[in-house]
Write a structure and sequence with these properties.
By secondary structure, the protein is of the alpha/beta class. It folds into two domains: 276 residues, 3-Layer(aba) Sandwich (Aminopeptidase); 114 residues, Alpha-Beta Plaits. The protein has eleven helices and 16 strands. The strands form four sheets. An eight-stranded mixed beta sheet has the order 1-2-4-3-5-16-6-15, with helices on both faces. The longest helix has 21 residues.
């Protein structure tokens, strides 16, 4: 109870500073794996707070470290992603992006500001707890192969392996001050599917003399939809969508080659592998039956985000105590993907949402030019991550 009140008091005390940090970051967004100024800004803040860190992971990534003063204990890692999106901002904010065509349209500016706020809170209370908190400031969440995977490959946890990793993400549809959790499978894996259909092109008025690559490509897209409805068990959520088809012919020319690109999302790693093989089988068989050839390239993306059941239950209990039961929501699965899945695949993990909805005003949607979050939510996001970290620094119950 004592620490809860201290965290609440400090999250109130630091709120304006956290907001100012978020505004600075929002004004100066940088694209994936090029977060140079962002990284330097974070490093300057950590030095100001007296928090040691290592930098240079995947060029811009940072690992901060706070050691509690009550002895050696468990290790809890807290993660924030740093990159912005290639979107031109369409707001009238005084801290609108000054980098043309680049915007923090997914809330990563809020994630960084929140983690810096959490770090300041935990650092101020370090005489009250034991163990170690690791602060992961991660580049390149928006672009495959993802900074989480690359940071681990570069040995970010070589010195100290976390017992728990916690991440959080804004949610514009959720009321500010609320937090949402989902036990078990939460976010889907995400893979890119690239198909090239090759055949004999020619005059569109004489299709009997050629392979209609456009028709074949269209038939492939249709046939692939049977995977979700006739191959994968109904209890496993799956989406296979194609958003790009390039048939560079003309009204009277059928091209020799058609390119198709799409995304595979699924909530089961075993069936993820089976579906990839099924895609290859259907594409090859369809093209072959129509006298053409097809090349298939499935680029591995992010794995499923999985929330450890015991950790999630403890986290919900802590959140209810900190924010009140009415402020805690149970999330549904999301078919969007997150490279936090690389962390959850390797370590016991928790990934949750915090609401940033602006009451009576347009919040916008994620990945859009008008996204504008409620900055008061940063009090919740910095405080809740601090109390969750304090909970998991304790020995397991």
């Amino acid at each position: 109870m004592y620490l809860k009140k201290r965290v609440q008091s400090l999250s109130d005390k630091y709120l304006q500073e956290i907001i100012d940090i978020r505004r600075h970051l929002h004004k100066h967004p940088e694209l994936s794996f090029n977060e140079n100024e962002t990284s330097q800004f974070i490093q300057d803040k950590l030095m100001e707070y007296g928090i040691p860190f290592k930098s240079g992971f995947v060029k811009t990534g940072i690992l901060g470290r706070i050691d509690g003063e009550k002895g050696v204990g468990r290790v809890v890692a807290l993660r924030a992603d740093m990159d912005a999106l290639p979107i031109g901002e369409d707001t009238t904010l005084p801290f609108k992006s000054v980098n043309g065509g680049v915007m923090h349209a997914c809330g990563h500016d809020a994630h960084i500001a929140s983690l810096l706020g959490t770090a300041k809170i935990l650092n101020a209370l370090k005489e009250e707890w034991g163990g170690t908190v690791l602060l992961i400031f991660q580049p390149g969440e928006e672009v495959s192969p993802g900074g989480a995977k690359l940071m681990m490959e570069e040995g970010v946890f070589n010195d100290l392996s976390p017992d728990v990793i916690i991440g959080q993400h804004v949610l514009p549809e959720m009321e500010s001050g609320h937090v949402g959790f989902k036990e078990g499978m939460y976010m889907a894996s995400g893979d890119e599917v690239h198909i090239t259909v090759k055949g004999r092109g020619g005059h569109a008025a004489m299709p009997h003399m050629l392979n209609d690559t456009v028709l074949i490509a269209s038939q492939i897209v249709v046939n692939l939809q049977q995977i979700a409805s006739r191959f994968v068990p109904a209890g496993i959520p799956m989406v296979l969508s194609f958003g790009r088809m390039i048939a560079d012919g003309a009204t009277n020319i059928i091209p020799e080659e058609v390119k198709i690109a799409g995304t595979l999302r699924i909530m089961d790693e075993e069936w993820r592998a089976k579906v990839k093989q099924k895609i290859e089988d259907i594409v090859t068989a369809t093209a072959g039956s129509m006298g053409a050839e097809a090349e298939i390239d499935i680029k591995d993306g992010y794995p499923v985000v999985f929330n450890d059941s015991d950790i999630t239950k403890r986290a919900v209990s802590v959140a209810q105590n900190f924010l009140g039961k009415d402020s805690i929501e149970e999330m549904d699965i999301r078919m969007t993907a997150e490279d936090f899945g690389f962390f959850s695949k390797s370590y016991p993990s928790l990934f949750y949402r915090f609401g940033v909805k602006r009451e009576g005003e347009n919040t916008g949607r994620l990945h859009t030019s008008t996204f504008n979050l409620n900055e008061k939510a940063l009090r919740t996001s910095s405080g809740i991550m601090a109390v969750e970290a304090l909970e998991f620094l304790k020995e397991e119950k």
